[in-house]
Specification:
Blueprint: E1 9-13, E2 18-20, E3 30-40, E4 52-55, E5 71-73, E6 85-87, E7 96-106, E8 109-114, E9 119-124, E10 131-133, E11 137-138, E12 142-148, E13 159-165, E14 171-172, E15 178-187, E16 190-200, E17 209-216, E18 220-227, E19 230-239, E20 243-245, E21 250-259, E22 263-268, E23 274-279, E24 281-286, E25 295-303, E26 306-317
Parallel strand pairs: 1-9, 11-19, 20-26
Antiparallel strand pairs: 2-6, 3-4, 3-7, 5-6, 7-8, 7-9, 10-12, 12-16, 13-14, 13-17, 15-16, 17-18, 19-21, 21-24, 22-23, 22-25, 25-26
The chain binds 2-acetamido-2-deoxy-beta-D-glucopyranose (NAG) (7 copies).
One 2-acetamido-2-deoxy-beta-D-glucopyranose is lined by residues 23, 74-75, 82, 84.
GO molecular function, one term: carbohydrate binding
Membrane topology: Single-pass type I membrane protein
Main location: membrane
């Protein structure tokens, strides 16, 4: 009476949950009263009382050790002929065969049916990773990272922690950060667990890793590391000599440490002509300098929508040839 298509091998992960889909049809005159699920090893008939892991009559039935409170019917109304169950907080030892029995009445007499086939559940190690959402990070602005635990299980609430590996390489927490945890109930049996990490991002966070770690019941853990990219820009830095003699070569390097890299342009004050441009760092070279090269030069750095400028005086000294 139980659809054979229900029975197959299900694989699930430790710490998460599994739904064993099941439905049944009954003969005329049979009124289903209770649903019983058994779990057993391959050699067993799988219908002994000590193998019961769930009984919809909760009053007088003891279930196998370790299954208390972890198994629920998806559809509590047995008249719907839906015997699907969810098992939460899975452990590897939950692997095995599962068999269903429906107890009821026919012509005022107790009657019942058990499925012929069994469903095989195989619980493997936790391999699903949390999903981490990173927004665009900008230095000096509040950033909120989101981490979503895998699985949509209604079992124990997992513990979510955030760690940070700074430039020093040691694992710690982001100073001044705060976290918040919430559980979103999707249906009676599905929940999503989410943690957010909020902090004021700065250049020191750029290219460092932040890890979201999730701990489910039974020390089952999974984690995901993400590399932070922070939009930032430091001051314009000009290096090189500014005084040369006529005929010499002058090199002036303008650089700006930033992410993403800035476009650096050299021009002479009062002129629109770009003498040289490059990304990150640009070197202005004046070969065989003449006194006409003297004057103020401008280094302009374009970083996203910002423009930074720095002026510098160049003096080319005239040498009288006697
Ligand atoms: C059994 O009930 C659950 C929960 O309402 C539902 O998701 C599932 O599709 C039902 N199964 C069948 C075979 O009707
Ligand atoms: C973030 O830090 C910067 C510099 O430390 C500060 O100027 C800014 O006000 C802070 N922003 C927030 C939202 O806390
Ligand atoms: C950051 O994590 C990535 C993988 O996501 C790894 O390849 C990289 O080595 C890590 N960097 C540091 C500094 O730990
Ligand atoms: C400017 O650039 C030079 C050469 O790259 C570097 O040694 C120096 O530390 C920089 N100064 C600042 C303030 O960034
Ligand atoms: C200026 O830079 C050029 C290459 O960019 C190099 O060949 C030359 O030696 C440099 N001159 C000085 C005086 O630093
Ligand atoms: C940068 O220089 C290249 C040639 O070297 C030129 O084609 C380009 O237009 C310049 N970009 C800007 C923004 O001046
Ligand atoms: C430097 O400039 C002077 C004057 O214009 C010229 O006579 C000389 O040939 C130039 N030297 C080089 C190496 O270009």
């Amino acid at each position: 009476f139980v659809y054979e298509k229900n029975f197959r091998t299900l694989t699930a992960e430790a710490g998460l949950c599994v739904v064993i889909p099941c439905s049944f049809t009954t003969g005329f005159g049979f009124t289903p009263k209770h649903i019983v699920w058994y779990k057993c090893e391959a050699y067993s008939r799988c219908d002994y009382d000590h193998e019961i892991i769930f009984h919809s009559n909760k009053n007088n039935i003891r279930v196998q050790y370790g299954f208390e409170g972890r198994v629920s019917l998806l559809e509590p109304d047995i008249r719907q002929n839906n015997c699907s169950i969810i098992i939460n907080d899975l452990k590897e030892s939950d692997s095995g065969l599962y068999r269903i029995r429906v107890n009821g009445e026919r012509k005022w007499r107790e009657d019942g049916f058990a499925s012929i086939q069994k469903t095989t559940v195989s619980v493997e190690g936790l391999s699903q990773k949390p999903r981490v959402k990173l927004p665009t990070l900008t230095e000096g602005q509040q950033a909120t990272l989101t981490c979503v635990a895998p699985g949509l299980c209604s079992g124990s609430v997992p513990e979510i922690t955030w760690t940070w590996r700074g430039a020093g390489g040691t694992e710690s927490y982001i100073t001044g950060s705060s976290t918040s945890f919430r559980t979103k109930t999707l249906t009676a049996f599905t929940q999503r667990h989410i943690s957010t990490l909020t902090f004021n991002s700065s250049a020191e966070h750029h290219n460092t890793n932040v890890t979201c770690k999730i701990r489910f019941t039974g020390e089952k853990t999974t984690e995901e590391a993400s590399t932070l990219k922070v939009n930032y820009v430091k001051e314009v830095n000009i290096t090189g000599g500014t005084n040369v003699k006529e005929g010499e070569t002058l090199n002036l390097t303008c650089s700006v440490e930033s992410f993403p890299p800035s476009l650096i342009m050299w021009s002479k004050l009062g002129s629109d002509i770009t003498l040289h441009n490059d990304t990150g760092s640009a070197t202005l070279s004046i070969i065989n300098a003449t006194t006409e090269h003297s004057g103020q030069y401008v280094c302009t750095a374009k970083h996203m929508n910002n423009i930074l400028q720095e002026n510098i005086d160049i003096t080319v000294m005239f040498i009288s040839h006697v």
